[in-house]
Amino acid sequence: MHSEIFPDMSLALGIVSVAVWIYLICGRGGYWRGAIRDATEASHPASNLYRWPVVTAIIPARNESEFIGASVQSLLRQEYPGQLNVFVVDDDSNDDTAAVALRTANAVPDRQTTVIRSKGPAFGWTGKLSALNEGIAAAGQANPYYLLLTDADIVHEPDTVAWLVGQALAGEYVLVSLMAKLRCESFAERSHVPAFIYFFQMLFPFAWVCRADSVVAAAAGGCILVRADAFAGAGGIAGIRNALIDDCSLAAKLKTIGPIWLGLTDRVHSVRPYDSMRDVKQMISRSAYAQLRYSPLLLAATAIGLLMTFIAPPLLAVFAAGLPPYLGLAAWLAMALSFIPTLRFYRLSPFWSLALPAIALLYLYYTFNSAYQYLRRRGGQWKGRVHDAPSLQ
After folding, report:
1. What confidence tens digit (pLDDT) does each residue in 343-393 have?
2. Considering the domain 38-275, what is its CATH architecture?
3. What is the pLDDT of residues 279-322, one digit of tens each?
4. What is the H or E stretch that residue 226 is in?
5. CA distances from 387 to 93, 124, 236, 240, 379 (A)
6. What is the pTM of this model?
7. Domain locations in the chain?
C-alpha cells in the first residue's frame, strides 16, 4: 500500500478501521474487558438451600486415557451437598479410557460412577453427541434435576458443581456454562489461546449472552449445567445431533426456553496440551468453517472483516503517509489495549497485544484451511473421525 498511489483509499481505510474499533470498544457489550466471570457473581453457600437437587455429570470420552482419570477424580471429589452421579461414556476408544475411568471411580467409592461402552455414533450423529445421548439416556434412571455436560480433558475445582447449581437457581437459568481456562504454557498456546478467548467473546459478547432480551446465545462445551426438563423441552441432544459446534447450538435452543449464563472462570481447567503450531491449527481449523455455516459468502465476508479490522491498521501505520498512519496507529492502539485484559487473565505480558494483527492473520489462514478441508471431505477431524458438512455428505 502506498499513499501516493492510493491516497483516497488509504484515508477511507483508516477512517473505516477507526470507526470499527470505536464500535468494538464502545458498542459490543464490553466483550474485551472479560468482566463476566464466576468470581464477579454473588456466592451461593450451601446453607442457603434446604435441599440440593440431584445432578448427573456426563463425560463423553474417546481415546482419552491420558486425561480421563484427572477429570473423573475432580468430579468425584466435589464438595456438593446433594446427590451427584457421574457417567463416563467410552466412545468406541481403542485405548484404556474405560479402564482408567473405572480405576479412578473405584478409588473414590463415595460417589456413584457408571462407565458405559459405546459402539460408535449412530447414523447422522457426531461422535460426541451420540455418546452424550447414550449417557443421558442411562442417566434418566436417576431422575436428575440438572445435567452437567463436561469433557474428558476438563478438571473441576471442588466447589464447581455447587457454584453452578447455586448460580442456576439464583438466576433461574436453564443453562449455566463456564468457559474452561485453557492451558497456556507452550509458545503455541501463549500465541493462540488468549486470542481464541478474545475472538470468542468478540463473536458472542458474554454480557449479551446473559441478557434475556438478547438473541445472542453461546456456551462453552467443557462445562455446561443444564436443567433437565428445559433440555428435554428443547429437543434434547437429538435436536443438535449433527452440530459440530454443539455447545453454541445447544445454548441457542435453550435460550428460547429461558435465560442462560456464560462466563470466564478460574475453577474449571482444560489440561489438554497444544504444544505445537500444528496442534493449534488442527484445533481451530476443526470447526472454523462450521462456525460460518459452510458458506463461501460468509467466508469471504469474514476475510474482509478481519483484514479491515486487524491487518489494515498496522499496514497503514507503517506504510501510509499523511493522516492515514495516525488513523492506523489509533486503531492499532485500540486493538492492543482491548487485548490486554484477556492477556492479564492468562497472566501473560501485555506486549503480546502488539502481535494481535499477526495472530489474527494466522486465524484467517486456519479458517481458509478449514474450508479447504471440508471441500476435500476431511472436515471436522477429531480422534480419527471426519465430520463433513451436511451439504457435502
Report:
1. 999 999 999 999 999 999 999 999 999 999 988 887 766 666 766 655 444
2. Alpha-Beta Complex (3.90)
3. 999 999 888 888 888 999 999 999 999 999 999 999 999 999 89
4. strand 223-227
5. 17, 10, 20, 14, 6
6. 0.93
7. 7-33+283-383, 38-275
